[in-house]
Amino acid sequence: MIFLRFAVRRLLEMAVTLLGASFVVFGAMYLAPGNAASFLLGGRSASPAALRAIENQYHLNDPFIVQYGRWLGNILHGDFGRSLQYRTDVSELLSSRLPTTLLLVGMALVVVIVLGLALGWIGAVRGGATDSGILVGTTFAIGTPSFVAAILLQGLFAVQLGWFPSSGSGSGDGFGRMLWHLALPAVALALYLVGLLARVTRAAMLEAMEGEHVTVARSRGVPERHIIGRHVFRNALGPVLTTAGLIVSTLLVCTVLVESAFSVGGIGQLLELSATTKDFPTVQAISLIIIAVFMTVNLLVDLLLPLVDPRISLGSRADA
User: ABC transmembrane type-1 domain spans which residues (predicted)?
Assistant: First the structure.
């Protein structure tokens, strides 16, 4: 009952926050220089009558709150509007490009989780020169932005060595071909977060090793591998899981840079092109989707934390 009440409350908070975010997303585009009518004209001059006809067709001359209400109502019915640049429904653009981005983010997330947890575990358990080497490596990873990693990986492994394709997603050549095309972008996307997760995991495990329960377990002769797995790593999962929201949001945001560098053709590259050309409906739809995914991940983290860390009480959080 406490869990259900907490989940319902968090869902309501998420809905209110998402509503506020939608207002900001819709309004932010109209604060930028230029307007949609000038883009639709393609830079050509037009008579006042022609300009008014375009504004009437796209409801550009309606009051802001009316435009926002119409846009929000359409979104609730699954209609994201019509792209001003591609002259097609935004939902069709998203459906054709979203699978590529989801696969790219999924591959990068696997790299982050596997390498980040492994490096953090090894650094905390081994110590010494191994730990120092991991600290140096993770410092380099954290200090390398995604777009810099994309350029370096592309220049070395695609251009110089020719091991991987330098651009494209391979979406028309089968799933295996897509994995090959997206390998370098996934590594470029994951590099910074591998260093971050490794640092968080290492610090959390080192802190857990100093716990009284670990000392007691060792005094009782419990094998070290059981102590690390059951007592140290499990207690370190709380801080690790808390960073999940940051990891997912960073992956989604950095896809814009990485997809553009590799010409992947996902929603990240679409977002960049649409923002450049003032394609309001497309930018608003993608931005809202990214925000919704980020908030959903945070909700899942809040619900999973008590399962991995019994010290966290849903009851106390729900009543706070």
Answer: 98-301
